[in-house]
Structure formats: C-alpha cells, structure tokens
C-alpha cells in the first residue's frame, strides 16, 4: 500500500466514524441589526468625521505653542498683523489682529503707521480673522525687533 492510499484510508476512517466527536456544526445565527446595521455604521462614521473636522477647524490655539507674529498681505492690498499658530489651515486664522489705519494713504505714498486693533470697529468683532487662503498674497513672519511689533507691544502694555 502506498503512502497516498494509506492517507486516503485514514481520511475515510475519520469521516466514516460515527462517533459523537464528528457531528455537523450548526452555522451561528447572524444578527443583521434589524436591517439597520449599515445605517448604524454610516452614522458612526459621519459622527467621527464631524468631531475630527470640528477639532481641527474650531479649536483655540494651545498655550504651549510658540507665538509667531505675521504680516499677512491680501490680494486686495490690505495688510494685517497678528498671531498665526498654524499657517497650513484654510481658512487661515489670525489672532490678536491689527491693521494700519492709513493703509489707503500708504498705498498712495505717504502716511504714518497708525495701528488699530481689530474688534474696536463698529461691528465689535473679537479681534480674530479667518481669511480664505486664496485671498492671501503672502504671510511673512515678523522679527522680534520689527517697528510694527514694537508698536503693537507698546499699545498692549498701555491697555
């Protein structure tokens, strides 16, 4: 008897054995969730997406990050100065925002630097701006000895 025939005989012996060990296994019943299984998964996925989106778009800056002041020039020619914690977001969020009151005169060639803190206007904003990235011409980090930053620090120390 060859090895193959021996294996076949052993298998036949196992399958033909009528012992209690080799009984048919019943398929477990599946809970289809009452037909709402897919909807439950979809709802949980959308809920997760909402929380992730909210976390990255509506969070306040953390205190442990370094404060970097930027000059942000828009395609309209306006320049705003403020703190940006994450330059990769869209919209770009500028905190503690200032602008030159005489920007129009400066564009025409003249005028002194008179900074105004955003939020002091009639509409009473909170000083934070969200600017769509496509409207930004450039963002430039300001040096610590910048005249604009000195003026901002002077204003904040008096108020």
CATH second-level architecture of one domain: Roll
Question: What name does the CATH topology of one domain carry?
Answer: SH3 type barrels
Q: Percent helix among the residues?
A: 25-40%
Largest sheet: 6 strands, antiparallel
What is the radius of gyration? 34 Å
Number of helices: 4
- Category from helices, strands and their pairing: alpha+beta
Concise overview:
By secondary structure, the protein is an alpha+beta fold. 33% of the residues lie in helices and 20% in strands.
Keywords:
six-stranded antiparallel β-sheet, single chain, 20% strand, 4 helices, 159 residues, alpha+beta, SH3 type barrels
Explain this structure.
With 159 residues, the protein is an alpha+beta fold. The protein has a domain at 69-158: Roll (SH3 type barrels), CATH 2.30.30. 33% of the residues lie in helices and 20% in strands. It is built from 4 helices and 6 strands; from the N terminus they run ααβββαβββα. Strands 1, 2, 3, 4, 5 and 6 form a 6-stranded antiparallel β-sheet that branches. The N and C termini lie far apart (103 Å). The model has no long low-confidence stretch (mean pLDDT 77).
List strands and helices in order, with pairings.
Layout: H1 3-16, H2 37-58, E1 69-74, E2 79-83, E3 92-100, H3 103-107, E4 115-117, E5 129-131, E6 136-141, H4 147-158
Antiparallel strand pairs: 1-2, 1-6, 2-3, 3-4, 3-5
């Amino acid at each position: 008897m060859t090895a193959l025939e021996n294996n076949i005989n052993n298998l036949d012996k196992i399958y033909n054995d009528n012992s209690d060990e080799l009984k048919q296994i019943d398929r477990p019943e599946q809970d289809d969730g009452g037909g709402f299984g897919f909807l439950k998964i979809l709802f949980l996925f959308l809920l997760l997406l909402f929380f992730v989106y909210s976390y990255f778009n509506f969070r306040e800056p953390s205190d442990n990050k370094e404060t970097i002041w930027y000059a942000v020039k828009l395609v309209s020619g306006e320049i705003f100065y403020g703190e940006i914690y994450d330059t990769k977001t869209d919209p770009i969020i500028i905190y503690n925002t200032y602008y030159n009151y005489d920007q129009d005169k400066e564009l025409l060639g003249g005028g002194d630097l008179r900074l105004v803190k955003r939020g002091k206007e009639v509409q009473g904003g909170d000083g934070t701006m969200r600017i769509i990235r496509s409207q930004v011409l450039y963002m430039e980090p300001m040096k610590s000895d910048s005249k604009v930053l000195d003026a901002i620090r002077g204003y904040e120390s008096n108020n």
